[in-house]
Amino acid sequence: MEISEKNKNTIAKSLFWKGVENGGDQVITFLVSIVLARLLGPEKYGTLSVMLVFISISNVVIQSGFQTALIQKREVAEEDLSSVFFMGLFISALLYLLIWLIAPASADFFGDTEIAPMLRLLSVILFFGAVTSVETAIVARRMDFKAQCIATLAADMVSGAIGIVLAFRGYGTWALIWQQILKNLTLMVLLIILIGWRPEFCFDWGRLGELFSYGWKVLLSGLIDTIYNNVYTPVISKLYSPVMVGYYNRGNQFPQIIANSVGQTMQSVMLPAYSGLQDKKDELKALLRRTIKLSCFLMFPMMAGLAAVSEDLLGALLGEAWLPAASLLSLCCLSYMVWPMHVSNIQAINAQGRSDIYLKLEVIKKLLGIMVLILSAPLGITAMIGLKGVSDIICTFINGGPNARLLSYGPLKQWRDVLPELMLSIVMGILVYLFGGFLREMEVLFGLSGELKIIVSLALQVLLGAGIYMAGALMLRFESLSFLMEKLRPANVRGM
Hints:
This protein is mainly alpha-helical. It is about 85% helix and about 0% strand.
């Protein structure tokens, strides 16, 4: 069954604005991080990464379960929204107190006395997250992401500018702390203004219990996933050093930026879109297939190209001090390459009200991941990140398995659908890597030397990779390319 025209237009419009938001967010964050990375160096970023582990885990507890339940529920009343709002603030207060108490012990564990006061200040953003969680759920239910796009990009620019000024004035890691606080504060204030929702002074335990009966499984699943995804930072810090954490953080950031632009756009838009089709299995299956094919059409070549140019990219943007992160960057691309497949399958499962399946999948995947981490940790950081990528690819079969039964569209069919894009991306990545090696061996490139030579070399590699992939996609008549060309026609874009 084809997707209805109304749903197509609504989803396309939502994807456009969410894509602009996530793409702009990643670009601005990326540009700001380049400046800050050059000013502060690997060690300062390593320290921030350690502290953000605590914040990421706490934010899942505050936001994940109830927010997803609000989006998935067929009908939501004001009592639902206000109850979740006040419960979020209460949970934030408890977690803030807990982090305040354990901050000195954390500083002792990581051997850095500055972590305690920084962590206590950074934890203020938990309260902002509790507020924006409800606002984001309202945006998702309305499938109207324009206001959130404006708020996010404005928050990025304000906080980024202030963070850079503080870094120039010698505030070190504190510049990164204040940047994070101001980003979350500005986003909260702008969403309150633009969305227009205000909580009412009401609290209904019955409605909260109904939401929690669905959301606790999503919460626990998200908590397991977040702890697992962040466990590498403290392990690397403890086994190696904050500098190595900085290298890993930067190497992970580049593919993560691309994956977030695609994956978070899908995650925000596709859950409400899938939820609206939970009783129309054929249409839901068609939408899931379209989402996987389109996202992999975009993600595969970007990850293959990024892995191929990792050394020149770091040299051009961050300088020689960050070159040890190049191999880690390439290996991280393995994990993020398949992220859209994970997101698509999980959102389709959640949209059908099967958060119980989601929880089981997370337990199985993370047990596999922890086993891989334990086995690879003694072998060095390169083995740790490389084997993590392999396990993430294996997990596409775990995440896609339930949809073989629920929608008759399992992992084997999904991989068969995206195999042409994967093969073309691998060929493109190999050719770009070989071309980059040839350019690096040249003593003179158009009379250039130093960083300017690296920048020109990087630009030539990007152009070659884009040309190879687009030419191959046209020759092989990829379905996703035709879909994108149709949607990006001027008349269609103006309609958004």
